[in-house]
Amino acid sequence: MSFKDDEPIAASQDVSGEKPAAAILVGKTKVTIINKTMAPLEESKFKVMLELTGVGFGNDRSGVDLVMVLDVSDSMKGEKLEKMKIAMLFMIKKLSPIDRLSVVTFNGGSHRLCPLRQITENSQGEIENLVNALVANGGTNIYAGLQTGLKVLNGRRFTSGRAVGIMLMSDGWQTIGGDAARVSIGNVPVCTFGFGADHDSRVLNSIANHSMGGTFSHVRNQDNFSIAFSQCLAGLLTVVVQDLKLTVTKVESIIVKVSAGNYPQSKDDAADSVTVSFGDLYNKEVRKVIVDLLLPAASSPAGSNVLNITYTYSSGGKLFDANPIIVTVCRTGRTSVEPEREEVMMEENRLRIAQMIKESRVMADDKKRDGALEKLAEAQSLLENVVNDESNPLIGMLKSELQQMSKLMEPKEIYEKQGRPFALSLETSHNRQRFAARGDDPKELRLFATPRMVAYLEQAKSFDKDPRKPLPSVDEDEKQELAVDEYEKQELAAEPLPPMVGALSYYIQTAIQVTLIPVG
């Protein structure tokens, strides 16, 4: 069974998602290539880091088809349910007429409150009434809720150029139905939210990991419902490109490894290439990829092409195929060794710290808490020894993550209710390079947050205090971001030129080492 009753967008709106070719094909992604400029003549290892950044324009976003899957089991009674209703009210008010919303609830079974409905003044009020009428009772069938949410999206009639997403929340463990962790999700991003101290973090994390770009958020305090929902919504409302795929192909090299979190990778042995599928990319969101190469021995100094880079994405229902980019390095017989780029070392350290957090969580799950604490201490020591730049915000965030994780390791009850979900939310965030709420969401743990997420954090806090207070529209949010971008450009242009003494070679090397390639 599938639903095929999604509402069309009213004729006055752009239902196709099509834009003029220039708006679609220009400025959607920026690629930054970071690597050393030289390599020795003998066989050697070589690293290339790629940064893909979403670059969007106001009034050019895709409409969103969003399905909210809500736990209304018996454990949600009381203040939890009321806080969830306020969070849903925030969501409904932030959507605009190019968006559609469906609400699914689950307890012992699942129920679709409404099909995908275009957000108009009338539908807003009607959906708000449905949400306000919710009552909590029965068991917890996450499987049924997820299946129904997927049917809503898979049965759509109007799909061209539209972004999609499922947001699923639960405060309990599966008590009825199948195993939701085994549901085949496909390319739909599913963001899951575990509320309170008694949710099944492993199941919710598995659901997110099985989706394309989904994240698991741990929300310990029910007062933060609106904040957690708002951060995911901020991403969905700023989708710049869809179905982003990056392909790296060897030239005069061998590809040893491609590090890109847990995004799916496929190898083409005939072409000696690796393709990474990222799904959607938000405005100002970054995907960093490190490609480890092995360069064969060279007979004499010369320029060498070592890597071919291509990428594709969809925007407004149209496919864009970027022109190939070639990474070149100078093979030299010089005895001096060029140091690894700092940006590459920072990213490798982030990946290493994230892996050590995962290892500590696995140890704790195996009741080896002493080993888990030792692993976290090792990670903290590593961070202290390899990084000297205390002003780098990434360092502060990683330190905060490790300190918080250490606090939540003992006693066992604390770990079970707070430590494990905190660790899983960290893992999913690092693996996806995408923000996920962690615990009480202190500001210092906002790694990967985008500008829209920062804005919605404050809006959600204010809305929780007074839900009657008007919220800025999405158009107003976009105008604010554009104004900030323009201000930053003017500030950058007004900065005086740095002293030139001893700097000329640095700027020449920087121009070679970091190539900024705007799409188009």
Question: What does this 3D model show about the protein?
Answer:
- The protein is α/β, with parallel strands linked by helices.
- It folds into three domains: about 20-55 and about 245-335 and about 510-520, Immunoglobulin-like; about 65-235 and about 445-470, von Willebrand factor, type A domain (Rossmann fold, 3-Layer(aba) Sandwich); about 340-440, no CATH class.
- The protein has 13 helices and 18 strands.
- It has helices at about 20-25, 80-95, 120-130, 140-155, 200-210, 225-235, 340-365, 370-385, 395-405, 410-430, 450-465, 475-495, 505-515, and strands at about 30-35, 40, 45-55, 65-70, 100-105, 110-120, 165-170, 190-195, 215-220, 240-250, 255-260, 265-270, 275-280, 285-295, 300-315, 320, 325-330, 515-520.
- Strands 2, 10, 12, 13, 15, 16 and 17 form a seven-stranded mixed β-sheet that branches. A six-stranded mixed β-sheet has the order 6-5-4-7-8-9, with helices on both faces.
- Helix 5 runs parallel beside helix 10.
- The longest helix is centred in the C-terminal third of the chain and has 24 residues, at about 340-365.
- It is globular.
- Residues about 10-25 and about 495-520 have low confidence and may be disordered.
